[in-house]
Input
Amino acid sequence: MAEAPQSPARAAAPAAVALLVCAAAVAAYWPALVGGFIWDDDGHVTRASLQPLHGLWSIWFQPGATQQYYPVLHTLFWFEHRLWGDSAAGYHVANLVLHLGGCLLFYRLLRRLAVPGALFAATVFALHPVCVESVAWISEQKNTLSLVFYMASALAFLRFDEGRRIRDYGSATAFFILALLSKSVTASLPAALIVILWWRRRLSWRSAAPLVPWLVLSAAAAIITPWVERTFVGAYGAAFELSAVQRVLIAGRAVWFYLGKILWPADLVFIYPRWNVDALAAWQYVFPLTALAGLAVVWSLRNRTRGPLAACLLFVGTLFPALGFVNVYPFVFSYVADHFQYLAAAGAIAALSAALATALGRVPTVQVRLGAAIVLAVLSVLTWRQSSKYRDIEVFYRTILARNPDCWLAHDNLGVVLVQKGKFDEAEGHYKEAIRLNPTYPEAYSNYGNVLARTGHWLEAADEYALALKARPAFSAAEYNWGNAMNDAGMYGEAERHFRNALKLQPDYADARYSLGNALANSGNLRGAIPEYEAALLLRPDSPECHANLGLALAESGRIAEALPHITEAIRLRPGYAEAHAYLGFALSGAGRYDEALAAYADALRVGPNSPEIHYQMAAALQKLGRTSEAADQFAEARRLGERR
Output
């Protein structure tokens, strides 16, 4: 007998629910969607050297070209940069779309597994504030992207397990590889599928054997990821020198911490206080011992019900890479982070929702739906409040410090933001506090040195750079900053020495190469400056400053024909670049094209400050044209502006 067709209203219901959940998620995440870049987003959004087509080759085949070796993630970032450039809004929207896509696949997976409360679980995950860090932080697109591939792979494998179609296994494997190359935490998937097969009473050699190649891939990821973390991210040193006992204590405490944040998502913060792990403190053993006791309880229940044991294995197994047994760079400042449990939280929420749905099976539907609506409304409000912490980078760091005042890293990073806003005195206070809290952190010394240099305290700045290099001898940025300070102080020989030191430590340091050119040009060594500018342009071909200064150096050397293309390129790259317009006027004057030079000087005054130097150059050009009266006016204006300085 043919199945009766669904009514149009019933068929449209799932779509209406999906739209409602999406609308709720957009509203909850809205403050983050209109926010900017934070933390290390600039290290993930495709940098200039990787933006050309050949950058894709580097992303895939040059370890270290990106912060971590996640080529699928950085390929997506590459395409996104082509779409919306450096606009943060596009990346935020993409992150939310990926999160919601992962939630939809999560719902389909739960439905396929006949897990009670599937819709509630997927919606809770979509709106849970513990996910805000992964969705609002552009760098964590690795989480949302890998979630999509993880869930798609799991669905395809379950189809294969039931139908044994090769195409399903092929698509499942492809999705798994894409997930691994987006974020290696997804290496837990084959073990998770084994647990699911056991829970469904379908585990056999026939069902598990296809996962063996996946386990090999997972093992490879487990080897490569720690190497990348150590070699390219910096996960080594005293902060990672933990004994086996200390790592067990961290793991036991972290499991309960993450579960607690799912059940009661209060006091969420981007950087949690770093625990003092003491193997001699008896109370710290409570966490791993109670975790083991809980595991023993669900193990004892396995013959009656496999669900609790499967849920625990899935949660802890997915969390394993973040439990302290593998070194990851964030352990420098905290052993836990909300984004560490993004994937694991999905399984925990599914288990808790299934238990709740089963327990409320006899409660009237209206009451259950009302209760569910209240829970989702509360979660939405909490997510909106948490998202608002990401709307502005200064608010972001101030929020961290309000909840974790001893976070030296947030003090240092807030100082950088304040310097950019011209709040030097306040920034100085945060740098000093960062140094007090962590005297071994070289960035704080270097950044404090920058503040001192900006206010003309050159010798004091040099002392801070020296302390930074004492803390980290191979700190190229400190050498670079020291060079800039000496250049501004007019000590060009010292500046050259520090720029060259920076380049010894980091040969592809484009800013140091460019600044070395400036120091040489300032000292009158144009012959030495020109090749440095040219080398900097090879590293950063779209730098308007480098084009402009190379053009000026060439013009001052009498190489006008070579100078003009570089100066005009600088203006093309940045039309409002006043200095470049002035350099163009200087070069055109050198070529005897005084009428064109006057137009260039006028453009410089139109887009930039009223500079006495430009008025002086205009006066010289007017004199060459025999317009002495106008030249006298320009000389007078140059003198007037010079006296006001």
Remarks:
- The chain has a mean pLDDT of 93.
- The longest helix spans residues 8-33.
- The chain has 32 helices and no strands.
